[in-house]
Amino acid sequence: MSALVIGGGGEGIGRAISRAFAAAGAAVAVADVDPDRAHDAVHELTESGARAVPLVGDVRSRSDLDGFVTRTVGEFGRLDTLVTVVGGQVAFVPAVRLHEMGDEDWDLAYEMNLRYVVRAAQAAIRAFLSQGGGGSIVSVGSVAGVMAAPMQAGYGAAKAGLASLAKTVAAEYAGDGIRMNVVACGAIATAAANSARRTARVPEIPMGRIGVPDDAAAAAVYLASPLASYMTGQSLVVDGGVTVRGPFPT
Ligand SMILES: NC(=O)c1ccc[n+]([C@@H]2O[C@H](COP(=O)([O-])OP(=O)(O)OC[C@H]3O[C@@H](n4cnc5c(N)ncnc54)[C@H](O)[C@@H]3O)[C@@H](O)[C@H]2O)c1
Known about the structure:
By secondary structure, the protein is an alpha/beta fold. 43% of the residues lie in helices and 16% in strands.
C-alpha cells in the first residue's frame, strides 16, 4: 500500500497522518513546500523502518501537484491513497467579518483549502484509473465547513466545498472502486493553532479537551483502509462532540 500525504511534513496533523499511514504499513510519499519538514518527516519514518520519500513542491502549482502523483507512482509502483492536509485560515487569511473581506483573501482561502484539492484529486484519479484496482482520497476538512464559520467565511466555504467534492467523486467513480471522504476536524492542538484561544474554548467541547493530531490521523487511516470500504462521499467529524451538542449545556 502506498500513500501520498500532501502537507505531510507538518508539525501537527500532517506529520501525525504520515506517521499513522507508515505505522499501518504504507509506503509514504511526504509532500511539502518546506524541504526541511519533508526531509525530517521522511527521516523519522525511515528510522522507524517504514518506506518513505520526500517530495518538495507547492500546492499552488498544478505541475507540482501532478509531479507529486507521478513521483509517488514512480517510487512505489502505484498510488493507493491520496491525503490532502494543507489548508487553514489563520496562517493564510486575516480573520475579518464578511463585509471586510477582500477578493484576494477570499481567493487565497479557496486556493489553499479547495482548489488544490480538486487538482490533486484529478491527478490521483487519473493514476487510479490507469493502474486499476481503485483508490482512496481523504481530505482534511474542518467543522468550519459543517457549521457557521464566523470571521472565516472563505475558509468555511472552502472546507464545505470539500464535502461536496467528496460526494461528487463518490458518485462519479464508485464503479471504478475509487472512494473519497473528508475528516472534518474540530479544534486540534497544533503548533500553528493559537493555544491560548484554543484553551479558552475547552468549556464548549463536550469531551472537555482539545483534540490531538493523532485523533485526526486515526480517522484518516480508517477512511483509507478496507475497514471503510463501504464508505464514500462522507464527512467524518472528529470534534469531541462540538457539532452535536445543543445550545443548552446539560
Ligand atoms: N489545527 C486545527 O485545530 C484544525 C482544525 C480544523 C481543521 N484543520 C485542518 O488541518 C489541516 C492541517 O493543519 P495543521 O495546522 O495541523 O498543519 P500541519 O502541521 O499539518 O502542517 C501543514 C503542512 O502544510 C505545508 N504547506 C503549507 N503551505 C503549503 C504549500 N503551499 N504547498 C505545500 N505544502 C504546504 C506546511 O509546510 C506544513 O508542513 C488544515 O487543512 C487545517 O485546515 C486544523
